[in-house]
Write a structure and sequence with these properties.
The complex is a heterodimer of chains A (259) and B (375).
Chain A (H helix, E strand, L loop, with lengths): L4 E2 L4 E3 L9 E4 L2 E4 L3 E4 L5 E4 L11 E9 L3 E5 L6 E4 L12 H4 L5 E9 L5 E4 L7 E2 L3 E4 L5 H5 L4 H10 L2 E4 L4 E5 L2 H16 L6 H19 L18 H12 L6
Parallel strand pairs in A: 9-11
Antiparallel strand pairs in A: 1-5, 2-4, 3-4, 5-6, 7-8, 7-10, 8-9, 10-11, 10-12, 13-15, 14-15
Helix pairs in contact in A: 3-5, 4-5
Chain B lengths: L25 E5 L7 E7 L2 E12 L12 E8 L14 H14 L11 E11 L4 H15 L8 E9 L2 E4 L3 H6 L2 E8 L4 E4 L2 E2 L3 H36 L1 H4 L13 E7 L5 E5 L4 E6 L5 E6 L4 E5 L5 E6 L4 E6 L4 E5 L8 E7 L9 H14 L2
Parallel strand pairs in B: 4-5, 11-19
Antiparallel strand pairs in B: 1-2, 2-3, 3-5, 6-7, 6-8, 8-9, 8-10, 11-16, 12-15, 12-17, 13-14, 13-16, 17-18
The chains are: A alpha+beta (259), B alpha+beta (375).
């Protein structure tokens, strides 16, 4: 079933008590604030089709270093606000001379938002297992508002994607998705993610993507048995299980979505 | 071009064949720019406007930042080739002024406090001008803002009203603008709160009041076109995924398109009042196959007069409760239901004069309705 599309200012309900995110109340009525999909299963929420990421505390994101100062790395987070990582928030002691050697301008990092103050100063931390610089795999950018759909209800979508493609996936809350696997697996996963982000207003999306893989596999077995790419990007480290855990955590944090 | 000899023909129609209260045809495309966060291309008569929205993003220079709120920058610009005589490119007195008042037209609706110290950039480029470009730009910008996912209390719609040959006309055309007596561009929210108003020329007080009424109707029409444009965007992108379309099982009723029908039977020369909850189009069908389309505004009551023993069919666009009122003040409230087979809802309400409120078969329908809406 296609979900109901609402636009800003559209009347949704008279039930003021259930008004959730993406709505506002005026004169005892609930209206939409955003152009997006209405979700009124429990609370009345509007999930926007698009929108920039707003940093919030405890989010796991993928950032890119834009400036290295004597005591801070400054990260671009795909948002209106940049993030600050102080050297003391790096897992080990680092001399300011070594900073560029560890993470230089242009490097992407899986990182946690430690705090955001009212002036939108974003403080980051890496003092946690699994947070690290990314130097292999690929990064795909999707709309941050579509992250819940990519993860699926209690991680159903992401688990399916992992199983179908044998790729590692980490979904940052800011809409950056890190994937790693064999080249052709990553190609397929990229296509699947594209389908998800273009059809976020459709129900039964997990099935749709599953079907996509099934149809494609038929073709695959014929064509690509010869394409046995020996893949050098596949770095085999055991701590790679962490991204899955972290994506689960994200899942707990949000996901008002899906049935 | 020179001043036309007369602005109205013998039928009272305007130079381009419009009625005095008719707006020019409008065409809207949403999301036409891939680099922008939100965009819209709008054609309104011969006006062609492209609007792009960027942000919220970091504001430079930093001294312009507001620690408590985002600022909105609005740039109205006419392309050098947008008019017959090439205009000098770049900002000028006129475009600076229009940018300023247009920016302020969005102030009451955009929730800037959610993005402290950031900026929302709105660019409105007039590619082809034909009178009323500032209103066209505002209409496009409102859609582009929504497309960018900016939280807003509602869309802003703008339309001009003017006076030619002493007569009030809605949405001035080029000659009407150039050789007319007055031009009054107005932008308003969906509640009818005016967010922009400018005037060139003179109106008497009475004319002004009448003009405001006229432009209010025009803005309502435009708001409806804007809504349709936004709702249409995603039904298109679905068709792109043809192969996957089949996967969606359960022939679910499409909420947007489902037409809900309602049959009201009247006894004699009776008046039927249909009350709707939201603005929407109500189609009223009488038995001799006359279809009357009535557009309602918020919480408005539509009155339909019927003849002897006639069946009145009321079609609403949305599923919602429709209140059917007959002139002797009986009110029947029916929840509209959707039947799974054909996406069509038929609730039969038989009304008779001097009878009690509800007929039994109507209650049955209501029960079915509850069962199905719970799915």
């Amino acid at each position: 079933m296609n979900k109901k599309i609402v636009i800003p200012g559209q009347f949704i309900s008279n039930n003021v008590k259930n008004a959730g995110s993406g709505t506002y109340i005026d004169d005892g009525k609930v209206y939409s604030l955003l152009y997006g999909i209405l979700n009124d299963k429990k609370r009345i929420n509007v999930l926007p089709f698009s929108g920039k990421y707003i940093p919030s505390r405890n989010d796991l994101v993928i950032g890119t270093v834009i400036v290295v100062t004597p005591s801070n790395w400054i990260f671009e987070l795909g948002s209106a606000y940049d993030g600050l990582l102080h050297v003391s928030e790096f897992p080990r002691r680092v001399d300011s001379a070594q900073m560029r050697g560890i993470m230089n301008v242009g490097d992407s990092v899986i990182i946690r938002i430690k705090d955001v103050n009212t002036a939108m100063k974003v403080e980051l931390t890496m003092r946690e297992r699994g947070l690290r610089a990314i130097n292999y795999g690929r990064i795909i950018t999707i709309m941050p508002t579509k992250v819940p759909r990519l993860i699926g209800h209690s991680g159903s979508m992401i688990t399916m994607l992992q199983k179908e493609t044998n790729c590692e996936i980490f979904v940052g809350q800011n809409g950056r998705v890190w994937i790693n696997g064999k080249d052709n697996d990553m190609d397929r996963l990229g296509k699947a993610i594209d389908i998800i982000s273009r059809n976020s207003n459709v129900s039964g999306l997990t099935e749709m993507v599953f079907k996509f893989f099934r149809n494609e596999n038929d073709v695959d077995t014929v064509v690509s048995t010869s394409a046995e790419d020996a893949d050098d990007t596949q770095a085999n480290d055991t701590e790679e299980k962490v991204p899955e855990d972290t994506s689960r955590k994200i899942d707990m944090l949000l996901d008002p979505e899906d049935e | 071009m020179s001043k036309p000899e007369k602005f109205f023909d013998e039928n009272g129609l305007r130079l381009d064949g419009r009625r005095v209260d008719e707006i020019r045809p409008m065409k809207i495309e949403v999301g036409v720019l891939s680099r922008a966060d939100g965009s819209c291309y709008l054609e309104w008569g011969n006006n062609k406007v492209l609007a792009g929205v960027f942000g919220p993003r970091e504001l430079h220079p930093r001294r312009m930042q507001r620690p408590d709120t985002a600022i909105v920058r609005y740039r109205y610009n006419m392309a050098a080739f947008s008019v017959e005589d090439r205009i000098r490119p770049g900002p000028n007195r006129r475009s600076t002024e229009i940018s300023k008042v247009s920016r302020e037209a969005f102030e009451p609706v955009v929730l800037t406090h959610l993005y402290p110290s950031a900026v929302i950039d709105v660019f409105a480029e007039v590619l082809q001008a034909d009178a009323g470009t500032r209103t066209a730009a505002i209409n496009a910008a409102a859609i582009a803002l929504a497309d960018a996912g900016i939280p807003m209390k509602g869309l802003v719609s703008a339309c001009a009203v003017g006076k030619v040959d002493g007569k009030l006309v809605l949405d001035l055309g080029k000659d009407e603008d150039n050789y007319g007596d007055a031009d009054l561009p107005v932008a308003m929210t969906q509640d009818g709160d005016v967010t922009l108003i400018q005037m060139d020329g003179n109106f008497t007080q009475d004319e002004f009041k009448e003009a405001m009424e006229l432009v209010k109707v025009g803005c309502k029409q435009i708001l409806e076109i804007q809504r349709e444009a936004l709702k249409g965007k995603f039904s298109q992108s679905e068709t792109e995924e043809i192969e996957n379309e089949a996967v969606i099982e359960a022939p679910a009723p499409e909420v947007e398109k489902a037409e809900n029908e309602k049959v009201v039977e009247t006894e004699d020369d009776e008046m039927v009042e249909v009350e709707t909850e939201d603005d929407e189009t109500v189609e009223v069908e009488t038995e001799d196959d006359e279809t009357v389309e009535v557009e309602t505004e918020d919480d408005e009551t539509v009155e339909v007069e019927t003849e002897d023993d006639e069946t009145v069919e009321v079609e609403t666009e949305d599923d919602e409760t429709v209140e059917v009122e007959t002139y002797d003040e009986e009110v029947v409230e029916t929840e509209i239901i959707e039947t799974e087979e054909d996406n069509e809802n038929v609730g039969n309400v038989v009304m008779e004069d001097d009878e009690n409120d509800k007929e039994p078969d109507e209650n049955i329908d209501e029960d079915i309705g509850k069962g199905e809406t719970n799915e």
